[in-house]
Amino acid sequence: MLPADGRFGSGPSKVRPESVRSLADHAVDYMGTSHRQIAVQFMVAGLRNGLSELFSAPDGYEIILGNGGATGFWDCATFGLIEQRSHHLSFGEFGSKFVKATRTAPHLDEPSVAESDTGTHPALAVVDGVDAYCYPHNETSTGVMIDPVRVDDTDAVMLVDATSGAGGLLFDPAATDVYYFSPQKALASDGGLWIAMISPIAVQRIERIHATGRWCPASLDLKIALDNSRKDQTYNTPALSTIFITAKTVEWFNENGGLPWAAGRSARSAAHLYGWAEQSEVASPYVRIESQRSPVVGTIDLDDSVDADIVTKVLRANGIVDTGGYRKLGRNQLRIGMFPAVDPDDVLALTACVDYVIEHLA
Questions:
Q1: pTM of this prediction?
Q2: How many domains are contained in the chain?
Q3: Quick check: is 314 in a domain?
Q4: Is there a domain that residue 303 lies in?
């Protein structure tokens, strides 16, 4: 009954064994060398070019990267992308953390924030007096997804947090100015890196803010990150294994059909998970609005007669791991990572195992 691979975490997520084996094959000619030497620069160039291909980057868009993950990128954005005031859609843990980052930045005005009932997302609309619109593509904590769109505000930049969506969700790249993410979720890699696809408008914003002389720590300076990325390197030493494994995942996606293929795998997994939950007597999708349900992170409520914590403990004892709900959400819930690296057949096996556990607990 067991899935072939029992990893269903929502981040860090399943890393493909093929990528790790490939890294081992390059242990002596890639690992343990300077990040400013050709072996690493070649890998960074491959990653940047591969992501441009994967996302069908419009003309003039660039891929930049730096250390610290998407959480660190929020700090980068408060220094180098938001000029004075931002507008946020806050509908989960990670969107709210970006709000906090801008709210506590002493050089920025109080942000504008739109919220909605838990398990939904608010509408994106024009707000007077803001120069940046910020929201998650996919809220990892709740399993709510929103399609990126561009509002009719030509003076503003559109910042989309794609940490759990990049590589697993279809989107219009032209609707974004900054599509930023970490690779430890849909890109089946390790953490410690942020990556962003940025538009010419975002490049101009970064350069304009830098020219004002606004103080910024060098490690968070997007102008420094931009300059170094154009040389296929990072400002300070990155995790070379993270870059390598991310590049291998992107290569795997592109060789098999690009973003439509990768997102299609997640869509098949999601169709089964939500269909199973809708037919179950003790399970139901947490996100009620079908169009807002995430194909990459599925949140499933269980009836009060079934203890989700016990279910996840039994699953873990049998090698099926990281299926628990987001702790701060505080619901009797399962949360299932359905990123492209997760085989849709394994999601099918997972739901059969959940049914088996619930039946025998009863």
A1: 0.96
A2: 2
A3: yes
A4: yes
